[in-house]
Amino acid sequence: MVKLQRVQRPKTQRGKRALKEREPKLLENARSLLCIRGNKTNNVMKVLLKNLHLLKSPHSKMYQRKNLDILPFDSTSKLEWYCQKSDCSLFAFVTTNKKRPNNLVLARLHNHITLDMFEFELNSKTFRSLDDFKCEKFATGNKPCLLFHGELFDNEPDYKRLKCFLTDFFRGEINMKEIDLNGLEHVMTFTIDSQTKLLSIRVYHVELKKSGHRIPRIELNEIGPHIDLTVRRTKLASDDFYKKTLKQPDAIKQKKVKNVTTNELGTKMGRIHMEKQDYNQLQTRKMKGLKRGLITENGQQSEEKRKKID
Amino acid sequence: MNSNDLVKNILQRDVDEQDRILKSTEVIKACPVEIDLGNLLVWDPNAVDQQAYKENREEYIKNTMRDNMQLLVNALWEVPIERHDNAIVAKLPDAKTIVPREKPVPKPKPLTKWQKFAQSKGIVKQKKSKFVWDEQKKEWGRRFGYKKANDESKVWLMEVPTSADPNEDQFAKKSAAKKERVAKNEFQRLKNIARANKINVRNDGAIINKKSTTNDVKKALATAKYSDASMGQFSERAVANEEQQTRGFNKKRKYESNLGSLKNEKDKQLKIFEQLGSSTTK
């Protein structure tokens, strides 16, 4: 596919730029989400999908039509093809049937090949969508703060992967070097209970209130979807494939700057290492009087010179 | 002290105490929390308080998460700060949790023939100016692009050199030479691609040791079909569904039978007639 793209050149600058966006890069784009409906979906699941789409926008694409004969746990080839077409590396697939009611499949891809896939059951009784909370939401494209709680995230390997997966899914922009301190608008929290293995996802709006000092006091107001999920099935990547995807390019790694330090006052100090100097050969201002030849014990030569001038 | 005053004092103390708790940014946790500022991530390893969780799940979640968020903000406010116009901006450290990449690490592209040569000779690309002086128009024009300066295709007067044939069309010669150069450039570009992808290409463009795809087989079948004197009109079918297989690769046009339905023929002719009259077709 890539070969063909190079043989047939893009005819416009816009096409060229679009292709460049899709190429593998050193500093990557944010992961895009592809929202797809399956063969049969009920209202609750449609709303859930719409909510996920809104949470991840603008890095999200929603496919409007129903898609027959997609069974993620049998074969993900069709989903992978759609993701390649839309240049997405996450997908959310929603179905409901008698055997698996209120089914949500979330997956992430590497190079358009499925890495990890998690199938959840949504608790439709406790589900509340974005519309159910009548308050100010967050700006689209804002980077959320992610909070995880629950020992299960550290104890079981499946849930450990799930924690990494959820970070990857919701984190938004990658490689952000700076953040506006007033721009911390929303928080996504993931709480997992060890007994019921229920994953609770809550989204809050952050309020910075005055405290006595510089650091503000935080208050949270719930704004977003109120989701309770239970893990049904998982399909995780093999360890070697997973390790391959973790490799970071060498060019990104920050080069160590040697011999430069900043002292406590904030001044930048540097160290210079000099080679050994021969002080006899130093270039200085020439003062004739100090010339080796002229200075004698008696001072005779200097007298001779004075006679010449006179 | 007056009893009234005493009551006032106690109430005041209470209000102050309340104020202090509300405004406090302190958080005490049993187990220290792991903060990854690069990802704005907080991982709270403390156990979930089962009793509080069961009693009022929402309250419990909200309170623990408020505490965690407070810790994140405390850490974030410690980070070096810059001022960009009106916004106060914190410089985030690198992300601690390593997350799988979306796409593989980009491989460096193999050098083209020219790039290798330039590297070995030490030739460096010279930056060229965007605008060039057009002597004829007496103004600055683009080096290339829309209405470029010194446009060779717009030359209206050419001297015929003494060694040339007087009946030769010099303009045609010039445009033919340009076409040659463009074709040669395209050829070199394709050769570079073949070299980069390690595809062996023969001089005439055929690929050596190529594995045939289904399309190639179909093309071969169609070619074989129309290679005889009557372009395959009278030869037998090689495969049962030959027409379907060779659909895109036929050379001979399909004609309707003379003794077909009159209605079809009439519809076709009318369609052509309509297209002649309409303004949407080219």
From TrEMBL, chain A:
One of this protein's GO BP terms? Answer: maturation of LSU-rRNA from tricistronic rRNA transcript (SSU-rRNA, 5.8S rRNA, LSU-rRNA)
Keywords on record:
Nucleus
Q: Where in the cell is it found?
A: Nucleus, Nucleolus
Q: Tell me which SMART domains the record gives.
A: Brix (SM00879)
The segment(s) forming the Brix domain are 31-240
GO MF, one term, reads: rRNA binding
Q: Name one GO cellular component term.
A: nucleolus
Q: Does the keyword Nucleus apply?
A: yes
InterPro entries under this entry?
A: Brix, Rpf2
Q: Give the span(s) annotated as Disordered.
A: 285-310
Q: Which Pfam families match?
A: Brix
Q: Which family does it belong to?
A: Belongs to the RPF2 family.
Name of the molecule in the record: Ribosome production factor 2 homolog
Origin species = Adineta steineri
From TrEMBL, chain B:
The entry's family comment says: Belongs to the RRS1 family.
Descriptive protein name: Ribosome biogenesis regulatory protein
A GO-annotated cellular component: nucleolus
Q: Which Pfam families match?
A: RRS1 (PF04939)
Query: Where in or outside the cell is it found?
Result: Nucleus
Keywords attached to this entry: Nucleus, Ribosome biogenesis
Source taxonomy lineage? Eukaryota, Metazoa, Spiralia, Gnathifera, Rotifera
GO BP of this protein: endonucleolytic cleavage in ITS1 to separate SSU-rRNA from 5.8S rRNA and LSU-rRNA from tricistronic rRNA transcript (SSU-rRNA, 5.8S rRNA, LSU-rRNA); ribosomal large subunit biogenesis
Cited function: Involved in ribosomal large subunit assembly.
